[in-house]
Design brief:
Structural class: mainly alpha
Number of helices: 14
Largest sheet: 3 strands, parallel
Shape: globular
Distance between the termini: 30 Å
Order of helices and strands: HEHHEHEHHHHHHHEEHHH
């Protein structure tokens, strides 16, 4: 959905309000001690300090000593467990915190006020078109404007999917947008085509969906698996309930 990109954009736009800097790290699948040490080590890279590898103090104590007197922006990206964040957030003192997550229940568990929660929707079609133009250039997109809108519709305005499509087409600079759109219409192979990059730094829509899927309990996963047998035109609420 672009939640990490939105957090990075905010950090760039408002960096002047954080005189001691910005640190953003991915925290999914990590325990509280690992997350705390990674944040502290990232800070110490720029302050000529060292963290004793045998320092066994609690994670909150490490964070408080490192960040308690600073005014920074800390981004906990792709958070997936409340128990990791609960002891760390109060320990950062004057610093501001942004948490990005796929888990809509996480803000409730952390008792974050509704005013501090931002739900990131898909891009409107015109913004989706603008994103493709920024990646591919206005001339190329305008020359096949209908195909561009077809790509947007096929990937359902998902920012990550649009970024992948744009990156792939930029690399294949002679490939018509209409040809690429036609390749995405083949639904069984669509997710397999929506990736870009090497294994170390890859834009991958399937991997993104799998991360969200892993947040669901087994009964909900089975429910969605059963819905997958429905026709391409979708299903009614009554069908889902059955």
């Amino acid at each position: 959905m672009g939640k990490s990109a939105l957090a990075a954009h905010f950090a760039t736009e408002y960096r002047q309000y954080f005189p001691h800097g910005v640190i953003g790290l991915r925290v999914e699948d990590k325990d509280v001690n690992t997350v705390a040490r990674e944040f502290v080590l990232e800070l110490y890279r720029y302050t000529d300090q060292d963290l004793d590898p045998e320092d066994e103090r609690p994670a909150a104590a490490l964070m408080e000593e490192a960040f308690g007197s600073l005014k920074m922006l800390l981004i906990f990206d792709n958070a997936d467990r409340a128990e990791v964040l609960q002891p760390l957030i109060p320990a950062v003192g004057q610093s501001a915190v942004i948490i990005t997550t796929r888990d809509r229940g996480l803000p409730v568990t952390l008792q974050i006020s509704q005013d501090s929660i931002l739900d990131v929707p898909v891009l409107p079609s015109e913004d989706s078109l603008e994103l493709l133009k920024r990646i591919l250039g206005e001339n190329r997109v305008n020359a096949e404007i209908e195909a561009a809108y077809n790509i947007i519709q096929i990937v359902e305005n998902l920012p990550l999917a649009l970024q992948i499509a744009g990156a792939s087409l930029k690399l294949q600079n002679q490939r018509p947008l209409g040809d690429y759109a036609a390749s995405l219409v083949q639904e069984k192979k669509r997710l397999g085509r929506l990736y870009f990059g090497d294994t170390l730094q890859q834009l991958n829509l399937r991997a993104s969906f799998e991360l969200s899927l892993n947040l669901l309990d087994s009964d909900t996963k089975q429910f969605f698996a059963c819905l997958s047998v429905c026709g391409r035109d979708g299903f009614s609420r009554r069908t889902a309930m059955a």
